[in-house]
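Chain and backbone:
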Amino acid sequence: MLKLVLCFVLLASAGGGWAFNHGQDLADFEAYVAQYAKDYPTASARSFANYYFIYNRNQVNQHNAQADRNQTTYREAVNQFSDIRLVQFAALLPKAVYPTVSNAVTPVATQAPAVEYDIVTDLGITVTVEDQGVNCSSSWAYAAAKAVEIMNAVGTGNQAPQSLSAQQLIDCAGMGAGCSTQAPQSAFDYLTQYSELYPTDDYPNNIQLKQQGMCLPPPAVAVGVKQTSYSVIAENDDTALIRYVSNDIPVVVEYNPATFGFMQYSSGVYQPATRAGQATSSQFLVVVGYGFDAATNLNYWRCLNSFGPGWGEQGYIRIVRSASQPIAKKAIFPNS
C-alpha cells in the first residue's frame, strides 16, 4: 500500500494536473505539441494534456494491435483531439436542436442505384476538406456548405469547384446558436429564402472564433451559389439514402461522434459499438458514396467530415453499411 501511495504522489504535479515528463513519453508529447501547434494556457492544463495524450496514444496502440490480428475492422491514430478526454471531445460537439417548421419539398425522382458509387471519386471532383477547428461546433455549416458545393459541381460539370463559405452560414444562419446546437436545415432555409452562398475567398472561414460573428455583406463582385429548395429523407431510410447518393446527390446526416473510435479514426471501415441510450453529441457528415470493402468483407458508406485532411482517410470516414445500424439520421440535401 505504501508503494502505491508513493507512486500516486510522484505522479501528481504541483499544478494539480498529471505529469509524465520523462523519456519517450515526453519526447512523443513534445513532438505532438509541435505538430499540432498546441498552446496550453497554464502549466496545469499542459500537464493534463500530457497525461491524456499518453492515455489516448496507448489506447490507439492497443486498438491497432487488435487490428493487426483482424479483431477490428478499422485503425486509429493520434490526431488533434488526442490531448483531451473523450467526455471533453463529446462536449465540443453538443446535440443539435432542430427548427420546428420545415420548408422541405418532395424529393426528386431517382433511378435505381448502382451496386457501388462515389460522387467525388467517380466524377473526378476535387473537394477541399475543411477543418472546423475546436472552438465552434460548426459541422452543421461545413456539411451544408460542402453539400451545396458538390451539388453545384455536379450540375455545372465543374470538377474543381471553389470552396464555399461555412462561416457565412455560421454568421448569417446561426441564429445565436451557430457555434453550439444549430442544424443544417437552418443553413438551407437561409439559402433558399435569403441569400446565395459565397466562396471562402469572398467570405473566409475563421476557426478561431468561439461564437458566431456578425453577418457581413460579401464584396459587390462576389458570385455565389443559389439554392432553390431542399429535401429530407425519412428517418433510418437507408434504402432511399443509397438511391439519392447513387444519383449524384450529397446527403447530410447527423452522426454520434462520442466514441474513441470516431474521435481517433484513421482508416478502414468504422463499426461503432452498440450503445444503449440516446446520443448527446452531434457531428454532421456528408454522405458522398458507398461500396464494399474486400479486406473486411463489409459494406460501407463513405462520408466527408470537417476535421481536416489529416483526420481519417484524408478527411473522410467509411462507416459500416448495415440494416441494423442505419445512418440516415435527420438526412437532408440541397436540390439543384
In short: Residues 1-20 have pLDDT under 50 and may be disordered. Residues 187 and 292 are 32 Å apart (CA to CA). The first helix runs from residue 2 to 11.
